[in-house]
Amino acid sequence: RKALWVALAVNALMFLIEVSAGALSGSAALLADAVDFFGDAANYGVSLAVLALAPIWRSRTALVKGITMGAFG
Predict the structure, then answer these.
(1) CA distance 57 to 8
(2) pLDDT score of 73 more than 90
(3) Buried b vs exposed e over 34-65: b needs ≥16 C-beta within 10 Å?
(4) d(Cα 56, Cα 36) in Å, to the nearest integer?
């Protein structure tokens, strides 16, 4: 759990930094990378949210996350 919290915090911070830098500089590349950081942070947040749930909900969440990642791919 601690590692997930650290990863969530780092990704959320990097999202905020890159959104700000991208907006100030007008860089589409920085904004696109910020979206990637947001996706990673959301993924870690969902993982933390379901840790305390029953295994069936964790497995369903993993399936939905896998489908989502496949759609992005």
Answers:
(1) 21
(2) no
(3) beebbebbbbbeebeebeeeeeeeeeebeeee
(4) 28
Read off the DSSP letter of residue 61. Answer: H
Record the tokens describing residue 52, joined without a space: 């305390």
The span from the CA of 73 to the CA of 61, in Å, is 18
Its pTM stands at 0.80
If you search the block for the tokens 């949210």, which residue do you land on? 49
Residue with tokens 């990673």: 40
User: C-alpha 68: how far from its chain's center?
Assistant: 12
Question: CB-based contacts of 40: which residues, under 8 Å, 6+ apart?
Answer: 7, 11
The pLDDT tens digits for 37-72 are 998 999 899 999 999 899 999 999 999 989 988 887
